[in-house]
Design goal:
This protein has 160 residues and is an alpha+beta fold. The chain has a single domain (3-150), classed as Roll (Pnp Oxidase, Chain A), CATH 2.30.110.10. It has helices at residues 3-12, 59-64, 78-85, 90-97, and strands at residues 16-17, 19-24, 30-35, 38-43, 46-53, 67-72, 100-102, 105-107, 114-125, 128-139, 148-150, 153-155. Strands 3-2-6-9-10-5-4 form a seven-stranded antiparallel sheet. It has a three-stranded antiparallel sheet with strand order 1-11-12, with no helix packed on it. A hairpin with a 2-residue loop joins β7 (100-102) and β8 (105-107). The N and C termini lie far apart (36 Å).
Length: 160
């Protein structure tokens, strides 16, 4: 099996939390995409990492934005995860989600955990850019049934 196919097959076996990432560049373009490659990097300073596909319509806005917002999705947000995976214009996806704007950029106004991060660094990650952000704001709301992605489909925890 080719190495890239091996990685994809391996990762299908890992249940991954699903997030929506949004941003607005200084030039006014938007990023809006579904991500599972999000993780905490450091607590001092508080850093998170998001990987964005270089071929994505959100890539340029994401890597040039001063801030980005990461929202953790719940089971009932599968519609939003599917919307944000579409290859359509990020602003169109945001409009369909009923987004709002604040000083940090666009966000989907659902009562979900979210982190606001200030761009800290960007690294080359092959066909992705790895965007590191310092967390400066957010909300740590409870999600009883998180939305997960496993074996090419959305799911949730057993019993949810």
């Amino acid at each position: 099996m080719e190495a890239a196919e091996l990685v994809k097959a391996f990762m299908r076996g890992a249940a991954q939390q699903v997030y929506v990432v949004t941003a607005r560049s200084p030039g006014g373009s938007y990023a809006a995409f579904t991500a599972s490659a999000v993780t905490s990097i450091s607590l001092s300073p508080p850093l998170i990492m998001v990987a964005v596909d270089k071929g994505s319509r959100s890539h340029e806005a994401m890597v040039s934005a001063r801030h980005f917002i990461v929202m953790l999705l719940a089971k009932e947000d599968e519609w939003l995860a599917r919307l944000m995976t579409q290859s359509s214009d990020p602003l169109d996806k945001l409009r369909q989600s009923g987004f709002m704007e604040d000083k940090y950029g666009p966000y989907v106004p659902l009562p979900r955990p979210r982190l606001v991060a200030r761009r800290w660094a960007i690294y080359d990650g092959g066909d992705h850019s790895i965007v590191i952000g310092e967390v400066i704001d957010g909300e740590a709301l409870d999600v009883k049934c998180p939305l997960l992605y496993h074996n090419r489909s959305y799911t949730s925890l057993y019993g949810c």
